[in-house]
Amino acid sequence: MASACLLHWIPDSLYNSSVSTVVIHYSKFRQEVKTLPENVQFDIYYKLYNKDRLCELAMELSSLDVFSRVLRIVDKRDLLHHCFQAVMDHGTKLSVTLADAFRHRCSLLLSTAVSWKEKDKIIQLGFSLGGFLIDAGWLVDSESIHMSCLDICRTADHVNAWQQAVHCCARLMHIRNCNCMYNEAEATWNVAMTYVDKLAEHGIRINRASLCSEYSTLLFARSSYDDSYKMCCSALNELSSLLYPRIIVDVFRQAVKVCVVRREFKRAEVLIKFAVHYAREHFGAKHQVFSDAILDYGFFLLNVDLICQSVKVYQMALDIRMSVFGGNNLHVAIAHEDLAYCSYVHEYSSGKFQDAKHHADVAIDIITRILPHNHLLLASSKRVKALILEEIAIDSHNKTVEEKLLSEARELHLSSLMLAKQAFGENNVQTAKHYGNLGRLFQSMHKYQDAEEMHLKAIAIKEQLLGTDDYEVALSVGHLASLYNYDMQKYEEAEQLYIRSIAIGKQLFGNGYSGLEYDYRGLLRLYQSRGDAEKASEYATILHEWNHLRDRKHNESEVSLEFEVSETCEAAVEEFFRLPGRGCL
Description:
This protein is mainly α. It is 77% helix and 0% strand. The longest helix has 26 residues, at 399-424. The radius of gyration is 26 Å and the shape is globular.
């Protein structure tokens, strides 16, 4: 409720008094309300929400006809999300009810002979309702609605139906990617391509920006980064300022993720800054699309080692999503998880992990309420919480507490690894990350042989997928070096691994890279253990100089979301391709 008030919805006082009067005597005026203009009807329903009369609100919004009317009030969509979430939290399965009603209406339509115009009308309703449910995070029900729309498209054999089928497939791919249903998303891609080919045979070329971007997302999840990059380039080349602004923002966002993983940071910067600017320009600074864009800007900042700024941007994104959706929402959970991990990285040296743990706990709590207990989205949240618990355990100085927390972290890591392997198999970056995390945990649990095995697995998979000089490889190499140095006394192997990790970090991020601290401290300790005073002195000096660089970088932690960008998306794409890139691995 409090967050809804942040939206500053203040109707005219006389009008508001009239709405309040209708709400007070709602049972008397209920039928008449349905004859009022859509915006007035919505305001009355919103007042029911404000008065916490959720049973009556649920009864009204459960009607597909009523809900389709209030969906047309686009400028109050944020308020509708609050009403919707409140009813869902109250115990009414509103998303299921609406999806069932829509499917029933489609079945009735398919049982009679109707014109394409009538069919297209219900498809448009499905896109509107299904799109709302995507935004609200109720993916399963949105998927069923879009499947019904696709079934209607299949009943007609002409270009209009084929075009709608392609749009429907793009939406289904988005839903299935968000819901980690990657095999189903690939099947949908294949269906879409049959319709694209049919249209081409009739001389009609359909814009494929959304389709290519969603297929890039699928390939990205499978760690097929080269193919994902090629597909996102295809999506960028399809962009036009005439497209719906959200499509443009989403295509740019996906391309940013691929460029970050490929360490093409200059290219990623061009795209993410344009996406943030464009989202704010077309949707405003309190809209979900803007929060999507700045969430990915936080991802970019974290990966270019601007960690302080990243924490602030992630918090902004979470605040917007909370304002739009309230607390119990899948998109809010994802923002909590991203902030949890960024806060963990930010506070790694200080040991102040309570904020990070809070956000991880909230993310897991929301996801487990909405999704099955074995859903892949839980793997990432559990991994983040396990990392945090491990550090809290190490700093606890209480043997009983330490063992309890490390045991909990172990269960979380093993669960995450199992989910990742079920979804992606062995050769995937996410699987490799889980192996690496287990390696660190086993080191903390004094299981050094197990730790070594996990680190070696992680390095092998990452090198195969990312190459030998990638940031992720450097992380795992540095962790194995730490194991050899501090616990297994394999000093020669540790020295070479530290030097390799340092070289990759400096090449990617420069001499002030935050991750260099642990490698420098490791080498300093290694040389002291070996009695090499000269080398120990050398790295003590290097570490001192590194601290000066970090202090200077920390003082430059202000965040601005005001950017100078290209005037159009076409110009931004041109700038992207002008910048030097790298070849495929």
